[in-house]
Amino acid sequence: MSGAHPARLGFEPYVKGLDGALQGGVPEGSWISLYGPPGGYKTLHGLAFCLNALANRQKCVYVSTEMDYIQLKEQMNSLGWKLEKVYEVHFTSKIVESKDYGAYDLIWVDLDSLRYWAYKLNQLVREEKEGGKKKVYFWYNDPTLLTHLIMISLGAVGVLERTVTNITLDEVLYARVKDGLFESKYAKFKVNKDVHARVVIDSISPFIIGKFSVAGKILTDMKVRLATPNVTYVVVSHVAKTTEDELGANIGHIVDGRIRLWLELDEKAGEAKYYGWIVKMRQTDHSRKLHTVSMETSGNMKYLVWKS
Known about the structure:
Blueprint: E1 8-9, E2 15-16, H1 18-21, E3 26-27, E4 31-36, H2 42-55, E5 59-64, H3 69-79, H4 93-97, E6 106-109, H5 111-128, H6 143-156, E7 160-162, H7 169-174, H8 177-181, E8 189-191, E9 197-202, H9 205-208, H10 215-226, E10 231-238, H11 241-251, E11 257-266, E12 271-281, E13 291-298, E14 301-307
Parallel strand pairs: 2-14, 4-10, 4-11, 5-6, 5-9, 9-10
Antiparallel strand pairs: 1-3, 7-8, 11-12, 12-13, 13-14
Helix pairs in contact: 6-10, 10-11
C-alpha cells in the first residue's frame, strides 16, 4: 500500500527494552549499524535480531567473520538460546547444489564459508581470464566476495530466485538485487517479495580495516547491490576509541540507523558498566536517552535488558 509504514522488527525476548526504545523495533528494509569498541554485547544483539526473525516466521542470514559455526552454537548454548535442529545448517557448496535450494529458514556463513568461496571464485577467474591481461583475485575479506555470498544465501532462504544457470565473473562483480526487484532485463535474480529476511554481518570490520578513508564507499557499493524493501540489514562494526568518530563519519550517513554499544570501567565500583545509545533511526521517534545495558537471568536463559 502506498504510504504505508514499514513493519517493525525487534530483538525480543533476547534483548528487552530495546524494542520499546525503538518505538516498536527497526523499520523493515533498513540498514542498521551496531558499533562501538569490543566487549559491548554487539554480537549478542546481532544474534538476538536473527533469532527474533525465526520466531516471527522470517528468514535470516547470519555472517560471522570472527567465529566458526561451532563457536557460534557454543555461545548461544551458554546463554540458553536454543535452536531447533532444523536450523542447524551452515553454508557449504551443498547449499547451492541442494534440491531444497530456497527452502532454508536460516543460513550461517562463517569464516570457513568465506575462505571456501574465495577459493571457488578464484577458480572461476582462472577459467574466464585464462590468457587475458586483466587480473582479479579474491581474498576472504574482499567486500565483493561478501556481497556475492550474501546474494547466494538470500537465494538459499528463498528471497532470490536465480534467472541464469551458470555463475559468471560479471555476475559476481556487478549483479544487483534491485534489478530483480524491478525485473530488469539485466537481472541475474528475481526477487520474491513475499519472503521477508534479515541479514546480520558480524562484523564488517575485516572488510574495511586499513581502508577507513573508503569505508563509506565500500558500504555504499554493498547497499546499492543488496538493498531491497523485504530484507533488513544489521552491520556490526568493531571500532577503537581512536577511530570511532572517523569511522562513524564515513559510514554513519549511509546507514538508516546507528546503535552504539560500549562498556566503561567504574573504578569506584570495581566493575564494568554497559551502555547503549540509539544515535539515529530513520522513520522512528526513538529514545534519545542514554541507556544502561545489563545481563540478567530467568530460569535457564540469559538475556540483555535496556534501561533508561
